[in-house]
Amino acid sequence: MPDIPVADTSARPLAGRIALVTGATRGIGQATALALAEAGAHIVAIGRTTGALEELDDAIVTAGSTATLVPLDMKDGEGIDRLGGALYERFGKLDIFVGNAGVLGPMTPLAQIDPKEWDDTLAVNLTANWRLVRSLDPLLRLSTAGRAVLVSSGAAHKARAYWGPYSITKAAVEVLARTWAAEVMNISNLKVNLINPGPIRTRMRAKAFPSEDPNTLPAPEEVAAAILALCLPGFEETGRLYDFPTRSLKAFPVPV
Prior knowledge:
41% of the residues lie in helices and 15% in strands. It has 7 helices and 8 strands, in the order βαβαβαβαβαβααββ. The protein has one domain (18-247): Rossmann fold, CATH 3.40.50.720. The protein is globular and about 50 Å long. α3 runs parallel beside α4 (115-141). Strands 3-2-1-4-5-6-7-8 form an 8-stranded mixed beta sheet, sandwiched between helices. It has helices at 27-38, 50-62, 77-91, 115-141, 164-184, 203-208, 220-231, and strands at residues 18-22, 42-47, 67-71, 96-99, 147-151, 191-196, 240-243, 248-251. It is α/β, with parallel strands linked by helices.
């Protein structure tokens, strides 16, 4: 395989496949849901706002695909736990999981963070992804080519002042994904990878850097194309991080 994932050139490489995307109503999640839909996948779109999900559904239909809309807050752990069973009853499997939902959290010195804000950031960015792994892993193993992509951040590798909750949770998500990849490496068709989008023209980026000109940044659709490539059946790497700014795959040490 080349280091840089290349999208399948066939018109509908994901026809007949089921793809779940969290945080699907805006930004990278919305763009990824549409990219997967255009590639032929049926989209299970997870988001908090029903109206935004319905707008996404309209766009997916225009793209020639279909969607199942799931209004769900990532802090609703019991709702996440029920998700796997509901998907099994309806589809009998899951082919793709994109863990994109996340919050910036408080940008405050660690000693001054309100405990509820800390707990909420961990709940959305980290605990929800673990509960999704727990809920969706059996379904992904039933796919002939299960693919999971969790969204990380360059902040995971920087101990930048005032970014504590976000950076800490993204670093933990990377270890979560790598551990999952190691656990399924030799026993299933499931491949688990990470992506660092880098600076992208999103609402979260604008909140973190309000004086930055968003027009100088790549659009969410650009990173969505890279996520699509990681989700294709032909992409066989696992336990890797795709760094979108440098267009390169990073290998992690193999566990012994």
